[in-house]
Design brief:
Belongs to the V-ATPase D subunit family. It is built from three helices and two strands, in the order ααββα. With 205 residues, the chain is mostly helical.
């Protein structure tokens, strides 16, 4: 809609319609921005907790690794670690939060099958293996939260730009155009009324 349109009733109606749509759009966008902000604040809190849990899990894992190395020797621990199979069972799903596609990661619980001789290594090796499995789970959880937070923040930034554009540019321009066209139409009506009075006076003289 060209806000510099000629001052006609048709253009005034069109501008008023566009203004109503813009105000409704602003309200929807602002509501979306608030929802995204609340989700983002929640994710930031979750990320902080997940980071703390991951640090704790790492400390525990390296503690048992040090014990296993002390009990069995670095070479034996390295050979045992090489025998543990890698897991590629990570499941990825996607859900939508206010238009943002957020990945959901699921790491199925694994059965820790024997990958080395229990007679050759101490119990600390088993504890280290279980501890690093927990580290892996914590890493996946933190990655999911951080990825979701990044996507929501990006969406919120775009939404904020649209909100600002509607609030500071589009709506004020339409309101100004509405006032100018209304004023021009009122002036035109006054001129027409004056012209008719003059004509009527001439006809009656």
């Amino acid at each position: 809609m060209d806000i510099n349109s000629a001052p006609t009733k048709g253009n005034l109606m069109q501008i008023e319609k566009t203004l109503d749509l813009s105000k409704n759009g602003y309200q929807l966008m602002d509501r979306k921005r608030m929802i995204l902000m609340n989700e983002l604040v929640s994710l930031v809190d979750q990320a902080q907790k997940a980071q703390e849990d991951l640090e704790t899990a790492y400390q525990e894992a390296y503690h048992y690794l040090a014990m296993a190395t002390y009990d069995n020797g670095m070479l034996s621990v390295h050979e045992a670690a090489e025998d543990i199979p890698e897991s590629n069972d990570l499941e990825v799903k996607v859900r939508s939060i206010m238009g943002s596609e957020v990945p959901e990661l699921r790491y199925p619980e694994q059965m820790l099958l024997p990958a080395y001789s229990f007679f050759d290594l101490s119990l600390a090796m088993d504890k280290a293996r279980m501890a690093f499995t927990k580290v892996n789970e914590k890493q996946i959880k933190l990655a999911q939260i951080e990825n979701a937070a990044y996507r929501l923040a990006n969406n919120m930034q775009k939404t904020q730009k649209r909100v600002n554009a509607l609030q500071n540019v589009t709506i004020p321009q339409l309101e100004t155009a509405q006032k100018e066209i209304s004023a021009a139409l009122e002036e035109k009506e006054r001129e027409e009324f004056t012209r008719l009075k003059v004509v009527k006076r001439i006809l009656n003289s």
